[in-house]
Structure formats: C-alpha cells, structure tokens
Write a structure and sequence with these properties.
This protein is α/β, with parallel strands linked by helices. It has one domain: Vaccinia Virus protein VP39 (Rossmann fold). It contains eleven helices and seven strands. A seven-stranded mixed β-sheet has the order 3-2-1-4-5-7-6. Helix 5 links the parallel strand 2 and strand 3.
C-alpha cells in the first residue's frame, strides 16, 4: 500500500493502516468473484520469476499474493517486500515468516532506498493510483530495475462496480471522488514516459453477491464511500436490495495489469 500526504490521503491512510479493512475486501472478492481462478493467482500466473532472480514488491500489503507460491518464493535470490504501513509489513511477515532470502522494509516508491539496477523484477499491485507523484515513482522503478528487467503493475479500470454503486446511492461531487489517477485506461500513457513497452492485460470477472450484509461491510471499509458509511445501515441494505435479482446482486469488475519492459 502506497499513499501520499494530501488531505484525501488521510482517509486512505486510515483505510490501509491495519490489515482488517484490506482483509474484508480481499475476502469479499474471493467469495463473490465469478472468475474462480482469483485475481491474485491470475497476476502470479503472468510473472516470469526464475530461480536466483532479485524481486521487489512495492506496497505489499499483507503479502497475500505470495501465499501458496512457495516454489517461487524459495527460488528467489532475494525477495524484498515493502510498504509504507508498518502494520501491513507486520502482517506480511506473520503470513510468510522469516526467510534468509526475504526482507520486509518500509519504503516509499517515490524515493526507493535501493541501488540502481538492483532488481530483475519489480511488482506494484493496486497502489500506483495512491502515489502523489506517479511519474517520479515510475522513474524510481525504472532506476532500480536491471537492464532487461520487468515491471508488473496491477490496477482497476474506470468502469467498475464502485462506479455502479455510486450511481445507486446517487453519489457525486464531494460525496464520491473515484480515484482515476492510474487506471487500465490511462496507465499505458503514464508508463510510456519511463518504459519502452507497457502491455495491458485484462482480467475477465464480475461479482455475484448473494449476501447483502457482506456488501454492506465492504462498503463500510472504503474511504471513498464516506457518504454511504454515514447512512443508517438499514438504509444501505434497502438501496442495495432494490437492485437484487433472483436473490443476488450482480456487479461489473474491471481489473488488469501492465507488463512493462
């Protein structure tokens, strides 16, 4: 998780300070996503990480993406997981344990504490849109990548379920500020300033929610839905249930990643 120092980032910092909110969102997607492969598994399936490689993950969160991938983790010459939240780093170390080839470090993508050309692979998932100076962050990624190295960065699109939910709750203006700082639609342009190639790959998925209460809890974990959080819980339930059909609420998902060289 990577955040900045703007006023809007205060809510985001609270959203990511401890693992609980992130765990709620990850569990929700795991439970209700139609594509059963899972977004994390799909991301890892695109990584070309060979034995002996040095790998850096920026904004590692709870380290969940590496769970179940012992062969990749143990094969890395060095795997460094970074985050701005000490709580997330503690959760990642708890999930993955101490290993000779692993480090957990607090770091900011805008000023990475690593030497030039240190890594074969750099990964930044679902965090670039929080970076105050994205171009500076991407230049730092390019700097620490070895020649021929690969940068994998995942993000969402601009036609996502949160936009649909904002319509249902009639949010707009100050009540709903979708973060489109780095999306599947505009990410390639931003990446092209630092990388020769940025290939977009989309993950096909949607949500089929059968328990309204889980969606209520999900919304309450989102900093961008403060206006919804302030509503009585029953009002939130009623609005969501208005859009249910055959006992379920169906929502679009638009996620993907860029593979940069």
């Amino acid at each position: 998780m990577q955040i900045g120092s703007s006023n809007d980032s205060v809510a985001v910092k609270a959203q990511y300070a401890v693992p609980k909110g992130l765990d709620i969102r990850l569990t929700f997607h795991e439970k209700y996503s139609v594509n059963r492969q899972g977004y994390g598994e799909w991301l890892v399936s695109h990584y070309d990480i060979r034995d002996g490689m040095t790998v850096l993950e920026i904004g590692c969160g709870t380290g969940s993406i590496w769970i179940g991938h012992e062969e990749i983790v143990s094969g890395c010459g060095k795997l460094i997981l970074t985050d701005l939240s000490e709580g997330m780093l503690e959760a990642a170390e708890k999930n993955l344990g101490e290993r000779e080839n692993m480090q957990y470090r607090k770091a900011d993508i805008q000023s990475l504490p690593f030497m030039d050309e240190s890594f074969d692979v750099v990964i930044a998932n679902s965090m670039l849109y929080h970076v105050p100076d994205i171009e500076k962050g991407l230049r730092e990624v390019r700097r620490v990548l070895k020649k021929g190295g690969v940068f994998y960065c995942a993000t969402y699109g601009e036609h996502n379920f949160t936009d649909r939910l904002a319509q249902w709750f009639k949010l707009g203006g100050e009540n709903f500020k979708p973060n489109h700082n780095f999306t599947m639609q505009n990410g390639k342009e931003k990446l092209s300033r630092s990388f020769e190639a940025a290939i977009p790959v989309f993950y096909e998925d949607s949500l089929h929610v059968t328990e309204t209460e889980d969606l209520v809890e999900y919304l309450q974990s989102l900093a961008s839905f403060k206006a919804v959080i302030d509503l009585p819980v029953q009002k939130i339930r009623d609005i969501l249930n208005e859009h249910a059909a055959d006992g379920a609420i169906d929502l679009p998902k638009e996620y993907g990643m860029f593979i940069c060289r």
